[in-house]
Amino acid sequence: MHITTADFIDYFKSVTEMIEKEKDYLCELDRKLGDGDHGVTMSIGWQAVNQKLNNELANESDCGKVSSTIGMTFLNAVGSSVGPLYATGFLRGGKVASQKSELTDRDLEEYWIAFINGVKERGQAKVGDKTMIDTLEPALIVLQANAGGTRNFAEVFSEAVIEAEKGMKSTTNLISKIGRSSRLGERSLGVQDPGATSAYLILAAFLDFIKIKTLA
């Protein structure tokens, strides 16, 4: 599989559309754990990204420049803690994709490994804290297990998303240990974490994207 810069841009546009559709759902989850604005926050960030995609990045040929610009745009648009997390992920991924107009299976694998490691290092959360890491870490384990291997990327990423979904769903039975929702203590039980949910949706959107690319 080869993903061109134009394909990459199309994927990020699809994330914007997906976030708009899921905005109310993400806010509903967040109302039970925080300020109730996670969906709005994600929407603000991705709408800013979409504006860049349609203007400054419309004819960009460097996948790394696209990813890095998305990271900084998201950070500048979003004031909450999620801004630096995603920004770091996209900046790290941008380094992997730097000066590449096409991304191979190996490039894509390295991109998502770098993205997740960037989020992890910036946030310092661990599995069980009831955060987006509960979604991202299981996906990372699958990707790293195949790092440099010969397996088809689409197949590996599909498995990664399955594990990410399990991780996301596991947050329902966790007590929040980090951030504002940690003040709720046991009252945070029974609610799926909104950050874990949006992280899953972003990964799932990429899986949907590459499935369409494979069929095209």
Descriptive notes:
With 216 residues, this protein is mostly helical. It has one domain: DhaL domain (Serine Threonine Protein Phosphatase 5, Tetratricopeptide repeat), CATH 1.25.40. The protein is 68% helix and 2% strand. The chain contains 8 helices and 2 strands; from the N terminus they run βααααβαααα. A two-stranded antiparallel sheet has the order 1-2. α4 packs antiparallel against α5 and α5 runs antiparallel to α6. The longest helix has 27 residues. The model has no long low-confidence stretch (mean pLDDT 91). Keywords: Glycerol metabolism, Kinase, Transferase.
CATH homologous superfamily annotation: DhaL domain
Mean pLDDT: 91
Contiguous low-pLDDT stretches (5 residues minimum) are none
**Largest sheet composition:** 2 strands, antiparallel
Portion of residues in helices?
Answer: 55-70%
Tell me, briefly, the overall form.
Answer: globular
The CATH architecture term is Alpha Horseshoe
Count structural domains.
1
Strand content: under 5%
Topology-level CATH name? Serine Threonine Protein Phosphatase 5, Tetratricopeptide repeat
Order of H and E elements: EHHHHEHHHH
Domain DhaL: 6-208
Pathway: Polyol metabolism; glycerol degradation
Protein name: phosphoenolpyruvate--glycerone phosphotransferase
GO molecular function, one term: phosphoenolpyruvate-glycerone phosphotransferase activity
Question: How are the elements arranged and paired?
Answer:
Blueprint lengths: L2 E2 H27 L6 H17 L8 H15 L4 H16 L4 E2 L1 H19 L9 H13 L7 H18 L23 H22 L1
Antiparallel strand pairs: 1-2
Helix pairs in contact: 1-2, 1-8, 2-3, 3-4, 4-5, 5-6, 6-7, 6-8, 7-8
